[in-house]
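Protein modeling request. Please complete all fields; requests missing the sequence field cannot be processed.
Requester role: graduate student
Desired output: 3D structure, token encoding
Chains: 1
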Amino acid sequence: MRTRVLKVKSSQSQGNPPLNGRLASLEKARTLKNIQKKFLKPSYPKGYKFSNEEKIDVLHIYYSLQTQKEFEALHNMDLFHLTALLYGCTKPTVVKLVENDGNSNDGRVNRFIQNKDIPSHYKDMFENTLVESLQKGMRLTCTYFKRILFEDGIDVSGDTIARKLREWGLRWGSLTQRDYRRRNASVLSRREIYLNELEMLEKDKSRERVYLDESFVHKNHSFSKGWFLANGSKEIYKPTGLGPRIAMMAAVTQRSWLGARVQNVKTSLSVTRTESIHYYKSIKYWQVKKDSEEEGNVNYEIFRDYFEDHIIPFLSPRSIIMLDNARYHRQYPLDTFIPTSSSNKSQLIEYIHSQGDESASQEMSKAELLEISKNYFKTAKTEIQEIAEAYGHTVLYLPPYHPELNPIEYAWGYIKRKVADASSYDLATLTTETLPAAFASVTPEIIDKFFNHIKNNEKNYREIIKKEIEERENRMLIEEEKDQGGDDGFELDDPLQECSDLSDYDEDSVDFEDS
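Delivered output (515 residues):
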């Protein structure tokens, strides 16, 4: 029988002397009757429910008695009965605890004994479990890992688990939210199409990118963190609530905000002393009023007027205009048929015929007709695309859930930090001083950094697409070679040479997941 030597720390709450001292006295108390008189202090009533700590104490005593062979008094004794006498409980209680813990005769390590460390082989399991949970949108805590370890017979504290996780390179902190929908196959396909179209358009080096977007900021926008006295108050006195909402619209090129104008204003009687004031024709912001059509939240009418009045006049010839997929960016002409699941078969067939395809018929299923209709609808133009093309420009829609491909998203974050730094909690100050200064702080040098960053992201995505294509071709090649060498009895001229050409291929070595 395999045994385990333990340093026993018995329960002191029952008033019993330490176990080691009691075992040393067993030489003088050689019979169970004498042992019972010397040590037994029954204190657990019938039906008493033992806590985990008390179970640990009982099992500590039992397993330790198995290892104390030097004491003659233990020879030929009932260890269940002896454990009950030493702890002050009944024999059936000890038997039940040991049976629940596992058969003591096979030398199993009991599941209640508390360990001070976690075996290293759990490292890979924890890492894989953590990665899978994050991909499923789940957050794991030390309580989760503690439950796994306890089921495997390891009882450790949460602090011990946290310490071990840090030793293994895991960290606790704020998680970066990534929309799970960006991993959808249709979204990845749209990203590939977008990058290919952009690459084709930019073969003409004279064409300029223009990114257009909307955002908002509130009157009471400010930071929630700051320095405070260690022995003082952490309170900051500011208005409660967010306050009125300010809607913002702007467009940016790699040179600067679109429509930048500089006006020199005399600051004294001397002609040589002037101050440069920057104006940006593409920047527009207003206080949102719920009951106002012209100053409400952004809708298609407000966006179309802004596009025609503040964007089109200031574009370079044949510009490439980038828009996200907001509903008011993708408004179609009123006479446009949009195929949906609510469309009937006759409508779908008529639409397919209008595209010059006469293959659609009533014999086809609605699902087939809808798929064909949606493929044709991909070429449909939005009203904004038609307006831009009338002036010689092109509109491209960014792939959904990819803000890292839009430099103006980084500009909005920069502006909001500037507003928070200078927050005065006054609406007039925000619109006349703080916001103009925040927009002006986004200098051409900063904008250029934002553009370089998103272009680097585009490069990384193109490399992922390239690897996908290469991997797909390699798989097709291998499948073809398997077919050729299989059913029709085709044999390779030099099998060893043929295999060596594919020795570097490993279909599991390439990661195609969205970074």
